[in-house]
Every structure is written in C-alpha cells, then in structure tokens.
Amino acid sequence: MSDVPKTHPRYLSLTLRDKIVAGVEQGITSTHGLIAHGRGEAFDYLIGETTQPFAIEAIYAAAVMLLSAEHPVISVNGNVAALVPEGLIELAQVLNAPLEVNIFHTETGREQKIREHLLKHGASDVLMPTTEVQLSYIDSNRKFVHPDGIFKADVVFVPLEDGDRCEALRKMGKEVVTVDLNPMSRTAKQASITIVDNVVRALPLLCEEIQKLSAHHTEEATLKDYSNEAVLQKALQHISRSGNGNQRKRETQQG
Ligand code: ATP
Ligand code: MG
User: Fold this and answer.
1) How far apart are CA 24 and CA 129, in angstroms?
2) Which residues in the chain show pLDDT less than 70?
3) Which of 55, 138, 238, 242 is most open to solvent, judged by the fewest CB atoms within 10 Å of its CB?
4) β-pair type (133-134, 144-145)
5) What's the rounded Cα separation, in Å, for the pair 255 and 48?
6) Which of 227, 210, 228 has the alpha carbon at shortest distance from 74?
7) How many C-beta neighbours within 10 Å does residue 54 have?
8) Tens of pLDDT along 58-82?
C-alpha cells in the first residue's frame, strides 16, 4: 500500500485505488478492472462522493427485493472482491444467499484466487462457474454459471456489472439488483434496481437495511411504486445540477 497520509483531502479515494492495485497484484482484479474503477471514480466525483437520496431510495427497494427473493444469489467479480470482501460476506450472511464468482477476463487462476480471497475473509462457501449449465443470450465466458447459484436464482445481486450480462439475466426472467456509479450505463438502465453509489458505501447500508426490514415483517414493504428509470433520472439531475454549481462557483471566483 502507498503511504497516503490520513489528512490528504483525497484520502478515501486514494485508499480505494490502493485496494484495487493490490487486487491486481494479488491476481484477483483484472488490469481492465483498473479502467472500470477509473470510470467509477469520475462519476463518484460528480455525485459528490457521498450517498445521495436517490441511492438511499434504491437501497431500500433493493433490500425489499432481495428479502422477498426465493433464491437470491450474490455475483462477485474482481473489483468488488478487492474493494469490499467483508461487505459481500456480510450480505451473504444476512440474506442466507450464496456467493458466486463470475468474471469476464479469466486470466490464469483468477476465479480460484477470488474464491480463496473470500474464504480467507470468512466466507463459508463460494460457488464457482461450471460447464454443466449456461446462461442464454450471452457468448462470453460469463455464461458459465453454477446450477445452484446464478442459474437457478430469481434475484441476482451484481455490483459493477457489464451491460451484456445484465441484459442476458433480465431476458432469462431474473431480477437484477446492481450498484453502478454511472446512471447512464447499459447496466444501470437495464437492471431492475440500480443503486447509483460507490459499492464501498452502498454495501454496508444495504446490509443494515436488510437487517432492519427483516426485524420488522417484510411482507408489509412493497415495490409496487418503484421505478428504476425515475430514480436514475434523479441521479442524472443531481449530476447536472452539481455541474452547474461548479460552473457558477468558478465564474464567481473569476469574477
Ligand atoms: P455497461 O457495460 O453497463 O454499459 P461500462 O461498459 O461503461 O458499462 P463496465 O466496465 O462494463 O462499464 O462496468 C463497470 C461499471 O462499474 C462502470 O459503469 C463504472 O462506473 C462502475 N464502477 C466502477 N467502480 C465502481 C465502484 N467502486 N462502485 C460503483 N460502481 C463502480
Ligand atoms: Mg461494459
């Protein structure tokens, strides 16, 4: 890890970069994951690097959807494994749902390294892709799934998802809950519920919400008025407002 002083104004952001770089060094995260992280950072900057009300709204809906699922599954890629292994494990515990490794770039042994990384952090079990069953509508390596995991899931939690697979999962009739800082990505638009927030902030809040709801009879909570599109619109409006705000600030400073 680099030696970032805690007083550095971008301390948190730099700490996350360190985690992603460490993930690459450990063979967990793909080098392509670094680029995806950079895209996420840019959007995080635009939303203010805090959890906004549109994310809180989505987190509540996601908790309801995941709790009412018959067979929820948590899909894990190299970025989330490096950034939030404890959060993923806690989510699996509160939902009593399996974790399943599913990645796009399968450099040597990376799937196995992600599995071992999660086990080392305390996961009780981690499902792996198999050639026994495949997802339809997708040609990449991500079609290989586990028969007791993503294949039979009714709701899949897939943070930092790729648009192609999100579309395939939806076409197969599965609900998809994602976390994606870019409200314009194909994933954000196609998912059933998109939490526009950094996964490192959203995951602990999601676990907390699930615990709160499960203590208070979930059957009362419903999703009938939830619109992913409307929530994404709020995120976009927030981004454009913050853009105008920054512009005004610059003009005031210049003037
Ligand atoms: P899509 O395939 O859905 O159109 P994309 O091709 O732009 O998206 P991918 O590389 O497939 O992007 O997926 C990575 C997504 O994850 C990006 O939208 C990026 O903004 C987002 N992202 C990266 N890091 C984080 C993070 N820490 N928390 C939440 N989202 C993140
Ligand atoms: Mg993509």
Assistant:
1) 21
2) 1-2, 217-221, 243-255
3) 242
4) antiparallel
5) 25
6) 210
7) 23
8) 999 999 999 999 999 999 999 999 9
pLDDT for res 252:
55
Residue closest by Cα to atom 31 of ligand 1:
40
Q: CB of 104 within 8 A of CB of 129?
A: no
Where is 155: in which H helix or E strand?
Answer: strand 155-157
DSSP alpha helices (H): ranges in the chain?
A: 11-25, 31-47, 53-68, 78-83, 85-95, 110-120, 163-171, 186-190, 199-215, 228-254
Q: How high is the pLDDT of residue 18? A: 96
The finding on whether 37 has its CB within 6 A of some atom of ligand 1 is yes
Domain 53-234 has CATH 3.90.1010.10: no
Q: Considering only CA atoms, which residue is closest to atom 19 of ligand 1?
A: 40
Residues with CB under 5 A from ligand 2 (ion): 162-163
Please tell me the distance between residue 31's alpha carbon and the centre of ligand 2 in angstroms: 14
Residue nearest to atom 30 of ligand 1 (CA): 180
pLDDT at res. 120:
97
The whole-number pLDDT of residue 4 equals: 80
Task: Check residue 255 and give its pLDDT.
Answer: 47
Q: Is the pTM of this model over 0.90?
A: yes
